[in-house]
């Protein structure tokens, strides 16, 4: 088991990564709670809910099962979970357990952050991508007009990550999670990037995965400790996300998973970085790694102007122009303001670059 | 003008109380903002919106007018304001201005706390009661099943309190606000309590009101600085609220205003305190002050068991029993756990006490 300590401004908490942790959750709780509400989705519930439920030495353990998928990060589901918490009699000394991927973590975390103005919650990530979403204290739901627009900065009481649960993930979810690991490597650690580029996603064991997850969490932890509320360098974690989020939004969150969209966004950010700084980045290497690991790299029909307007709605945009994270070199990120004209040109060019390869 | 500094854990902010401040708001803003959304209700808008709008040296000033009244503190209105903020293009460097009473402050504050995970907002209280709600960083909306169940601790960037705006308040709102001042006096300052008991609410000038408000804010500030997240002594501010909230809820937030319900709750808390500690409190003095100032003191038909279950839903209840703030003497509050049986008995007795006086 690996333990990482996270010093958030409001509290210090620990991230536990290891095998079989789901059957000894109580050992990692910072204190006892008057009641516990486990929030999970229907897929994860089928695999692991029973293991978790039987885990707590507490008479008042309740469960809320949401439908899997991004659509559940809605204000309606938020409201339903609040109602559930009230009906179960949760009080200020109660705990919410977010058992699942980033959707469950973001949603249940936001419920915990706002229920009676904030009760404790723990993250129990069950996807690789959730190594990212479970650490750093960002919780949110979506608005019809954009992703993650309604939320809080609210740290969990602990993150308990049982890597055994990852074995039931399909390849699409593996790809999705590894895209965020590649992103973290790119903004902070060239050696880790090289390691990842030598990996075959269909041929990984638990120990290797845990190692990659721990490296990702270490990078994420350093960044968020330095800038919890995203006033500065935390923005680097959005590397690849300007294009990625817009692609997701245009797809109505179908087709590309979050990480798959980010993977394409990494390539886009490479292209813009190369031109902006007249440098070379390992575009080819990343492209072929993504391709050989089955990432979808063929864009759907995209109207460039529509794409641009989606980018501008992305919440990292301040005032009028789009702020994009670029690389000056590997592990040297920087935030740059890009004009609409330049962005449009880049979108056009990028569409050509990708389509020319198929 | 009087300035009070509030040291919250996340930020330090200032409360400005004075005459005519609404026409020089920009002087009190801690920084400049990319755009501004003023949230107010239809009644307040009629009186003061224009003064405020013309105040900002910013091209991007938008307005959202909600319907007045507690019903607006709903998840639907919350959602509508989020949509409005998005449609106006508010970004992370934008400001929300809450112009109005506690309803506008709580609602707009919660929108600000969650829009893009939190943007700045200022409180511009226009009721006396809002001296309480605007200071201390509690923001919330109601759930159908209980008041203020969904919210955050989120401090404003500043509180700008123009006492001139209070002249358009009706007597009901005066009473409502002064009940919270009496509450603050009771938990912290016997001299202030004596001052208030000698006041006639229909015969007050701006200077006197400003003085009372400043004393109330000073007490509130001391309490919340010592215990921002209500782990301990902040609960004292709920003096009178166990019964008050339940009464409000049973009335469906009609009839009694918040402060009027709290006023009745103060008497109830007096009664429970007197019996619990075998002491005498100035029940008669408070009762006759309330009566002579027109507070409604005749209870509607109340089912005691129903009342009890409403009290138990109140979010200050932990685990099973009701926690109530009592007085050991004036300015000596304490939190006490009261059994259901005792509470029921007290409710019955209290109903008799009040009805016997009419
Ligand atoms: N808060 C943050 O900092 C942050 C960071 C990155 C992403 N996110 C958010 O995370 C979400 C994406 O996370 P995600 O990719 O984990 O999505 P997800 O939660 O939707 O999980 C993906 C799919 O995998 C299934 N699943 C989860 N665990 C499983 C398991 N162990 N076995 C089998 N199936 C399993 C789920 O049911 C779902 O269908 C997005 O909403 C994104 O906005 C948040
Ligand atoms: N956040 C906190 O710490 C806290 C503390 C106490 C109360 N509250 C909340 O505050 C709310 C009650 O506040 P309130 O009593 O100010 O209610 P309110 O905002 O509903 O205002 C009362 C009425 O007065 C009107 N009004 C406001 N200003 C006016 C003016 N200057 N002239 C004429 N009319 C005016 C309003 O339109 C409304 O009809 C409740 O929702 C309560 O839960 C919050
Ligand atoms: Zn991401
Ligand atoms: Zn009150």
From TrEMBL, chains A, B:
<dbReference type="InterPro" id="IPR030960">
    <property type="entry name" value="DHQS/DOIS_N"/>
</dbReference>
<feature type="binding site">
    <location>
        <position position="241"/>
    </location>
    <ligand>
        <name>Zn(2+)</name>
    </ligand>
</feature>
<feature type="binding site">
    <location>
        <position position="180"/>
    </location>
    <ligand>
        <name>Zn(2+)</name>
    </ligand>
</feature>
<feature type="binding site">
    <location>
        <begin position="126"/>
        <end position="127"/>
    </location>
    <ligand>
        <name>NAD(+)</name>
    </ligand>
</feature>
<dbReference type="InterPro" id="IPR030963">
    <property type="entry name" value="DHQ_synth_fam"/>
</dbReference>
<keyword id="KW-0862">Zinc</keyword>
<keyword id="KW-0028">Amino-acid biosynthesis</keyword>
<comment type="function">
    <text>Catalyzes the conversion of 3-deoxy-D-arabino-heptulosonate 7-phosphate (DAHP) to dehydroquinate (DHQ).</text>
</comment>
<dbReference type="Pfam" id="PF01761">
    <property type="entry name" value="DHQ_synthase"/>
</dbReference>
<dbReference type="InterPro" id="IPR056179">
    <property type="entry name" value="DHQS_C"/>
</dbReference>
<dbReference type="InterPro" id="IPR050071">
    <property type="entry name" value="Dehydroquinate_synthase"/>
</dbReference>
<feature type="binding site">
    <location>
        <begin position="102"/>
        <end position="106"/>
    </location>
    <ligand>
        <name>NAD(+)</name>
    </ligand>
</feature>
<feature type="domain" description="3-dehydroquinate synthase C-terminal">
    <location>
        <begin position="177"/>
        <end position="317"/>
    </location>
</feature>
<comment type="pathway">
    <text>Metabolic intermediate biosynthesis; chorismate biosynthesis; chorismate from D-erythrose 4-phosphate and phosphoenolpyruvate: step 2/7.</text>
</comment>
<feature type="binding site">
    <location>
        <position position="147"/>
    </location>
    <ligand>
        <name>NAD(+)</name>
    </ligand>
</feature>
<keyword id="KW-0057">Aromatic amino acid biosynthesis</keyword>
<feature type="binding site">
    <location>
        <position position="138"/>
    </location>
    <ligand>
        <name>NAD(+)</name>
    </ligand>
</feature>
<feature type="binding site">
    <location>
        <position position="258"/>
    </location>
    <ligand>
        <name>Zn(2+)</name>
    </ligand>
</feature>
<comment type="similarity">
    <text>Belongs to the sugar phosphate cyclases superfamily. Dehydroquinate synthase family.</text>
</comment>
<keyword id="KW-0456">Lyase</keyword>
<protein>
    <recommendedName>
        <fullName>3-dehydroquinate synthase</fullName>
        <ecNumber>4.2.3.4</ecNumber>
    </recommendedName>
</protein>
<keyword id="KW-0170">Cobalt</keyword>
<keyword id="KW-0547">Nucleotide-binding</keyword>
<keyword id="KW-0479">Metal-binding</keyword>
<dbReference type="InterPro" id="IPR016037">
    <property type="entry name" value="DHQ_synth_AroB"/>
</dbReference>
<feature type="domain" description="3-dehydroquinate synthase N-terminal">
    <location>
        <begin position="65"/>
        <end position="175"/>
    </location>
</feature>
<keyword id="KW-0520">NAD</keyword>
<dbReference type="Pfam" id="PF24621">
    <property type="entry name" value="DHQS_C"/>
</dbReference>
<keyword id="KW-0963">Cytoplasm</keyword>
């Amino acid at each position: 088991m690996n333990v990482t300590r996270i010093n958030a401004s409001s509290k210090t908490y620990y991230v536990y990564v290891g095998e079989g942790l789901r059957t000894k959750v109580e050992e990692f709780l910072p204190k006892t709670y008057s009641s516990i509400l486990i929030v999970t989705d229907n897929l994860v519930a089928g695999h692991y809910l029973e293991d978790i439920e039987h885990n707590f030495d507490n008479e008042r353990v309740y469960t809320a099962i949401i439908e899997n998928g991004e659509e559940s990060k809605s204000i309606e589901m938020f409201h339903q979970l609040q109602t559930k918490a009230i009906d179960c009699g949760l009080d200020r000394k109660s705990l919410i357990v977010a058992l699942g991927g980033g959707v469950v973590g973001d949603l249940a975390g936001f419920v915990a952050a706002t229920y009676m103005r904030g009760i404790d919650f723990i993250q129990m990530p069950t996807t690789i991508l959730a190594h990212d979403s479970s650490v750093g204290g960002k919780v949110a739901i979506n608005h019809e007009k954009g992703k993650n627009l309604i939320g809080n900065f609210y740290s969990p009481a602990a993150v308990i990550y049982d890597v055994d649960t990852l074995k039931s993930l399909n390849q699409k979810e593996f790809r999705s999670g590894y895209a965020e690991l590649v992103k973290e490597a790119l903004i902070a650690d060239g050696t880790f990037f090289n390691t990842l580029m030598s990996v075959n996603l269909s041929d990984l064991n638990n120990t290797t995965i845990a190692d990659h997850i721990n490296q990702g969490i270490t990078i994420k932890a350093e960044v968020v400790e330095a800038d919890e509320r995203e006033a500065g360098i935390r923005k680097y974690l959005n590397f690849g996300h300007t294009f990625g989020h817009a692609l997701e939004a245009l797809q109505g969150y179908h087709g590309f998973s979050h990480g798959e969209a980010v993977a394409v966004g990494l390539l886009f950010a490479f292209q813009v970085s190369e031109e902006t700084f007249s440098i070379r980045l390992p575009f080819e290497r990343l492209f072929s790694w993504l391709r050989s690991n089955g990432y979808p790299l063929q864009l759907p029909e995209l109207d460039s102007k529509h794409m641009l307007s989606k980018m501008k709605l992305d919440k990292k945009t301040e005032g009028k122009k789009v702020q994009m994270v670029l690389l000056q070199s590997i592990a040297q990120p920087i935030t740059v303001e890009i004009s609409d004209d330049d962005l449009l040109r880049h979108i056009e060019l990028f569409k050509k670059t990708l389509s020319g390869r198929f």
